[in-house]
Automatic annotation (TrEMBL):
The organism's taxonomic lineage, starting at the top: Eukaryota, Viridiplantae, Streptophyta, Embryophyta, Tracheophyta
Membrane topology, from the record: Single-pass type I membrane protein
Coiled coil location: none
Entry's localization field: Cell membrane
Name of the protein this chain belongs to: non-specific serine/threonine protein kinase
GO annotations of cellular component type: plasma membrane
Superkingdom, natural source: Eukaryota
PANTHER family for the chain: LEUCINE-RICH REPEAT-CONTAINING N-TERMINAL PLANT-TYPE DOMAIN-CONTAINING PROTEIN (PTHR27004:SF439), RECEPTOR-LIKE PROTEIN 12 ISOFORM X1 (PTHR27004)
Assigned keywords, A-Z: ATP-binding, Cell membrane, Glycoprotein, Kinase, Leucine-rich repeat, Membrane, Nucleotide-binding, Receptor, Repeat, Serine/threonine-protein kinase, Signal, Transferase, Transmembrane, Transmembrane helix
Length: 821
C-alpha cells in the first residue's frame, strides 16, 4: 500500500510534464517557421478558385489542422503537403525550402508555373515529390541530387526543357521516375545505370534522341519502361533480355530499326509490349509465344514481313493485337483464333490472303475487327453473326465475294466497301439498332432496292455510304424525325425518282452525294436551312432554274457544290452565290488543312468521307475531304446570261467549272481576286471580250481552260499564265499572242496594262508565290487519294496527288489503349 501511495503522485507529475512539453512543442520555433513558409506559399497563389487556402490557412488555427497539411505524431512539424487537384494558380516561393521535416510534397494537377526555387534543395528528408500536371518551365534542376532519400519523382506533363540532368543518377533510392510530356532533349543519361532500385521509368513524349540507352539494362528491377514518342534511333539491343522483371515496355513512336531482338522474349513477365510506329523489319519471331502473360501487343506501323506465327496461340491472355500497316503475308493462322480473350484485332493494311476462317466465332469477346486493305478472298463467314460483343467491323478493300451475311446486332459501325460482294441487302440490316456511327457498302456489286426501312436507322447512324453499286428503285423516303445523319452518299447507282423530302429532318447533315443516278427533280431548295457543306447532284436529270425559288436562300456553309451534267437553265443564281459564306471566309492557307468529316469513339478516332469530283472532264474520287477543298461545278447544263461578278468574292475557292453552258458577256476581272484558285474552266460557252489581265494574279492556278468561246485580243502574260499551252485558248479565233502562233497586228496597242505592283516588287513576289505554290501543293498532295475512272490524267492534279501515297475511303485510326501508370 505504501508503494502504491508513492506511485500515484509520480504518475500525476509525469502527465503534467508531458502536457507542458507538448504545449511547449506546439509553440516551438520550427512550427512557426513552417507556418510562415506555408503562408508565403498562400501569398504566391494568385488564384484559388475553391477558396480552400483563403478560408482555411489562417493563423487562427494550428498549421497542423490546415487543409492538405500533415504533421508528425511526435514533433508538431509539417511532414506532408498535399494540394493536388485544387486548381491553384501561382508560383513556388523559396520559403517552402524551410519545411525542413517535409517528406512528401504533392501538388499535382494545378496551374503552378515558373521555375523551381533552389531553396527546395534544403528539403533533404523528401521521399516523394509530385509536381505533375502544372506549367513549370526551365530545366530540371541539377540540385535534385540533394534529395538523397527520394523514392518517387513525378514531373510529367509540364514544360520542362533542356537535357535530363545526370545528377538524377545519384538518387540510389529512387523507384519511380516519371518525366513524360515535357520538352526534354538530348540523350538519356548514362548515370541512370546507377539507379539500381528503379522500377518505373517514363520518359515518353519528349524529344530524346540518340541510340537506345545501354545504361538502362543495368536497372534490373525495372518493371515499367516507357520511351514512347521520342526520336530514338538504331536497333533494340539484345541486352533488353537482362530486364527480366519487365511488365510493360513502350517503345512506340521512335525511329528504331533492325529486327525485333530474340532476347526480348526472355522477358517473360511482359504484359504490355508496344513497338509500333518505328521502322522495324524482319519477321515476327516465333519466340513471341514465350510471352504467355501478354495482354497488349502492338507491332503496327513497321516494315515487318513474313507470316503471323502459329505460336501466337500461346498468348491466351491477349486482349489487344495490332499488326496493321506492315507487309505481312500468308493466310490468317487458325491458331490465332485460340486467343479467346481477344477484344481488339487489327491486321489491316498488309498483304494477307486467303479467306476469313469460320473459326472467327471462337473470339467471343471480340469488339473490334479490322482486316481492311489486304488480299482476302472468299465469302464473309456466316459465323461472324455469333460474335455477341462485336462493335466495329472493317473488311473493306479486299477481294471478298458472295453475299453479305447476317451481321451481329451489336455493331456500331460496319464497312465492307471496295470488295466484290453481290446480291441484295436484306432488310435485316435495319434490325441493327446499335448501329450509330457508319454503314459503308460502297464499291461492290450489290443490286436490288435499298431497304425502305433504312430510313429508320437514321435516328442513330451518322454515316451511310452506298456509292458505286447497282441499286435501283427509289431512295428510302422515311428519314426519322430525329435523324442524326451527317453524311449520306448514294453516288453511281441506278436510283430514280426524287430526293425524299424527309431528308430535311436530318438537321446535322453535312454531306449529301446523290450524283450519277437517274433522279429527276427540281433543285432541292428545301434543304437550304441544313448545315450542308457538300452537295453533289451531278449526272442526274435535275431541272429548272436556280433563281426563281421563293423565300430566303441559305446553304451558307456549302464548300463543295456540284450540279454538273443536269438540265438546269436560266441565269446563274446570284442570290444563291451571295449566300455561300463558307467560300467567302475560311483558311486560305493551304498548309493549314483539316478534314471535313470527323467522328470520335473510344477506338475509332477519324472517319473520312469520299467524294467523286469532275475536273477537266476527268472523274476523280477524293478519299478525304479537306475543309480547304472548295469547289463550284455548274458545268454541262443550260445556264445562260453573264457570269456573276460576285464570284470574285468567294476568296477560298479552289476550283470553278462553268464549262459547257451558254454563258455570254465578258469574263469578270474580279475573278483575279480568287487568290486560292487552282482550276478555272470556262470553256465551251459564248464568252466574249478580252481575257482580264487580273488573271495573272492567280498564282496557284494549275488548270486554265478558256477554249471554244468568242474571246479576242492579246493573251495576258506573266506568272502562272506563262505555263499554259494552246489547248487553254483553242477555238477563240480572235485571240492572239503567245502561246498561240497567231501574232497580234498592233501588239503594242493591244498589250494589257501592267498590274499595280512595281516591276521589281512584282518579280520578287512572283518567285515567292511560285515557291509557296509548290509547298502548298505538296501538303494537298499528301492529303488526297484518288481513283481514276478514265484513261487520261490531268498533269496538274496528278503532279499534286502523286506526291503522296494513295489513301483510301475509310480509315479507322486506332488509338493506343491501356494504362501506363
Amino acid at each position: 500500500m505504501g508503494n502504491i501511495g508513492f506511485l500515484l503522485p509520480l504518475k500525476v507529475f509525469v502527465v503534467v510534464v508531458c502536457n507542458f512539453v507538448t504545449t511547449l512543442s506546439a509553440e516551438s520555433p520550427s512550427t512557426t517557421t513552417d507556418q510562415l513558409a506555408l503562408l508565403a506559399l498562400k501569398a504566391h497563389v494568385t488564384n484559388d478558385p475553391q477558396n480552400l487556402l483563403a478560408t482555411n490557412w489562417t493563423s487562427a488555427t494550428s498549421v497542423c489542422n490546415w487543409i492538405g497539411v500533415t504533421c508528425g505524431s511526435h514533433r508538431q512539424t509539417v511532414t506532408a503537403l498535399d494540394l493536388s487537384h485544387m486548381g491553384l494558380i501561382g508560383t513556388i516561393p523559396p520559403h517552402l525550402g524551410n519545411l525542413s521535416f517535409l517528406s512528401k510534397l504533392d501538388i499535382p494537377h494545378n496551374h503552378f508555373h515558373g521555375s523551381l526555387p533552389m531553396e527546395l534543395a534544403n528539403l533533404s528528408r523528401l521521399k516523394y515529390i509530385n509536381f505533375a500536371g502544372n506549367n513549370f518551365t526551365g530545366e530540371i534542376p541539377s540540385w535534385f541530387d540533394s534529395f538523397i532519400q527520394l523514392q518517387s519523382l513525378f514531373l510529367y506533363h509540364n514544360n520542362f526543357s533542356g537535357i535530363i540532368p545526370s545528377s538524377l543518377g545519384s538518387l540510389s533510392n529512387l523507384e519511380k521516375l516519371i518525366l513524360y510530356d515535357n520538352d526534354l532533349k538530348g540523350q538519356i543519361p548514362i548515370a541512370f545505370g546507377n539507379l539500381s532500385n528503379l522500377k518505373r521509368l517514363y520518359l515518353d513524349n519528349n524529344q530524346l534522341s540518340g541510340q537506345f540507352p545501354m545504361a538502362l539494362f543495368k536497372c534490373k528491377e525495372l518493371e515499367f519502361l516507357s520511351l514512347t514518342h521520342n526520336v530514338l534511333e538504331g536497333s533494340v539491343p539484345q541486352e533488353i533480355g537482362n530486364l527480366t522483371r519487365l511488365r510493360n515496355l513502350y517503345l512506340d513512336g521512335n525511329n528504331l530499326t533492325g529486327q525485333i531482338p530474340l532476347a526480348l522474349f526472355e522477358c517473360r513477365e511482359l504484359e504490355i509490349l508496344l513497338l509500333s510506329n518505328n521502322a522495324l523489319e524482319g519477321s515476327i519471331p516465333q519466340e513471341i509465344g514465350n510471352l504467355t502473360r501478354l495482354r497488349l501487343l502492338y507491332l503496327d506501323h513497321n516494315n515487318l514481313t513474313g507470316i503471323v506465327p502459329q505460336e501466337i496461340a500461346n498468348l491466351t491472355r491477349l486482349s489487344y493485337l495490332y499488326l496493321f500497316e506492315n507487309i505481312l503475308t500468308g493466310q490468317l493462322p487458325l491458331s490465332l483464333f485460340k486467343c479467346q480473350q481477344l477484344g481488339y484485332l487489327s491486321l489491316s493494311h498488309n498483304a494477307l490472303e486467303g479467306s476469313v476462317p469460320q473459326e472467327i466465332e471462337n473470339l467471343t469477346k471480340l469488339s473490334y475487327l479490322y482486316l481492311y486493305e489486304n488480299n482476302l478472298t472468299g465469302e464473309i463467314p456466316s459465323t461472324i453473326a455469333s460474335l455477341p460483343f462485336l462493335e466495329y467491323l472493317d473488311l473493306s478493300f479486299n477481294n471478298l465475294t458472295g453475299q453479305l451475311p447476317a451481321l451481329p446486332l451489336s455493331l456500331r459501325g460496319v464497312t465492307v466497301a471496295h470488295n466484290n460482294l453481290i446480291g441484295e441487302i436484306s432488310s435485316s440490316v435495319c434490325n441493327m439498332s446499335s448501329l450509330q456511327y457508319y454503314l459503308t457498302l460502297a464499291k461492290n456489286n450489290f443490286h436490288g432496292i435499298i431497304p425502305q426501312c433504312l430510313g429508320n436507322l437514321s435516328n442513330s447512324v451518322k454515316f451511310v455510304d452506298l456509292n458505286m453499286n447497282k441499286f435501283h428503285g427509289k431512295i428510302p423516303g422515311d428519314f426519322h424525325k430525329t435523324c442524326l445523319l451527317r453524311s449520306f452518299s448514294i453516288n453511281h447507282n441506278q436510283l430514280e425518282g426524287s430526293l425524299p423530302r424527309s431528308l430535311v429532318n436530318c438537321s446535322e447533315l453535312e454531306l449529301l452525294d446523290a450524283g450519277n443516278n437517274n433522279l429527276n427533280d427540281p433543285f432541292p431548295n428545301w434543304l437550304r436551312n441544313l448545315d450542308l457543306k457538300v452537295l453533289v447532284l451531278r449526272g442526274n436529270g435535275f431541272y429548272g432554274q436556280l433563281d426563281d425559288f421563293e423565300g430566303r436562300f441559305s446553304f451558307s456553309n456549302l464548300r463543295i457544290i456540284d450540279l454538273s451534267h443536269n438540265d438546269f437553265n436560266g441565269h446563274l443564281p446570284t442570290k444563291f452565290l451571295e449566300n455561300l459564306h463558307g467560300m467567302r471566309s475560311g483558311s486560305e492557307n493551304k498548309g493549314d488543312l483539316e478534314y471535313m468529316m470527323y467522328i470520335g469513339t473510344d477506338q475509332v478516332e477519324y472517319f473520312y468521307e469520299s467524294l467523286v469530283i469532275t475536273t477537266k472532264g476527268l472523274e476523280m474520287r477524293f478519299e478525304r475531304i479537306l475543309t480547304a477543298l472548295t469547289i463550284i461545278d455548274f458545268s454541262n447544263n443550260r445556264f445562260n446570261g453573264h457570269i456573276p461578278v460576285m464570284l470574285g468574292e468567294l476568296h477560298t475557292l479552289i476550283a470553278l467549272n462553268l464549262s459547257h453552258n451558254s454563258l455570254m458577256g465578258p469574263i469578270p476581272s474580279l475573278l483575279g481576286n480568287l487568290s486560292a484558285l487552282e482550276s478555272l474552266d470556262l470553256s465551251s460557252n459564248k464568252l466574249e471580250g478580252k481575257i482580264p489581265v487580273e488573271l495573272v494574279n492567280l498564282i496557284f492556278l494549275e488548270v486554265l481552260n478558256l477554249s471554244w468561246n468568242n474571246l479576242t485580243g492579246l493573251i495576258p502574260q506573266g506568272k502562272q499564265l506563262d505555263t499554259f499551252t494552246n489547248d487553254s485558248y483553242i477555238g477563240n479565233l480572235g485571240l492572239c499572242g503567245l502561246p498561240l502562233s497567231k501574232e497580234c497586228s498592233n501588239q503594242r496597242n493591244l498589250e494589257p496594262q501592267p498590274t499595280k505592283f512595281d516591276e521589281d516588287g512584282d518579280a520578287v513576289n512572283w518567285k515567292f508565290s511560285i515557291l509557296m505554290g509548290y509547298g502548298c501543293g505538296l501538303v494537298c498532295g499528301l492529303s488526297m487519294g484518288y481513283i481514276v475512272f478514265a484513261t487520261g490524267k490531268p498533269w496538274w492534279l496528278v503532279r499534286i496527288i502523286e506526291r503522296g501515297q494513295q489513301k483510301y475511303v475509310i480509315r479507322g485510326k486506332i488509338r493506343r489503349s491501356g494504362g501506363r501508370k
